[in-house]
Prior knowledge:
By secondary structure, the protein is an all-alpha fold. It has eleven helices and two strands. β1 and β2 form a beta hairpin.
Amino acid sequence: MNKSELKEFLDAKVAQYNHPKFLESDPIQIPHRFTSSQDIEISAFLTATIAWGNRKSIINNANRMMQLMDHAPHDFILNYEESDLERFSGFVHRTFNTTDLCYFIKSLRNIYLEHHGLEAVFSSAITTDSVQPAIAHFKTVFFELPHEKRTTKHVSDPLKGSAAKRINMFLRWMVRSNSTGVDFGIWKSIPPAVLSCPLDVHSGNVARKLKLLKRKQNDAKALAELDKSLRKLDSIDPVKYDFALFGLGVFEKF
């Protein structure tokens, strides 16, 4: 396919998968259960954090986290007592355990009370062409409280070579327009043009087959290469192609 044929093909796949039916089997359904922007972003961040492995398990465990916070995550995070954290005992999703979740709750409270919320932390460090430095900045802020070293692996750092798939997915959810009822578009201080596609084994393999990506590892360098390719197809909203790459990989075994 030449560039125009590729764009036409991928645009059709975006239209196919960037659709409310996508919510039925995707973890993004969890934040769609809330209406306030703070509940949406907190539930989305925690859901994205555990978004690896079996999708049904991700959804079940994300729902469990919301239950443990009384389906009011923002209110819980601002107002919990130390004894309230005992309810998280035994929570585990793969390598994300009770210790990690309790720290995440403490850190989120610190971010809302001391840093004006999640959006403010991310938007303070974006550059004109990338959100990756902002993710690295976010990790620094997120772990400014005393913490166990094991917990740091659950927030990726692009400056250390990570593609930061889960945080890039979370940012897509927050920033991209909600015109199709899938993403939320509640963060207005970050332009969609600087977002990066969540890069994992599925999207990476499809991108290589379509010659959008040459690098073999799914790392920060590959993400930069994929960013460049997708921005040639749509400089305003390049990350819409996540729906195409993901859909082709997961649903069509492309």
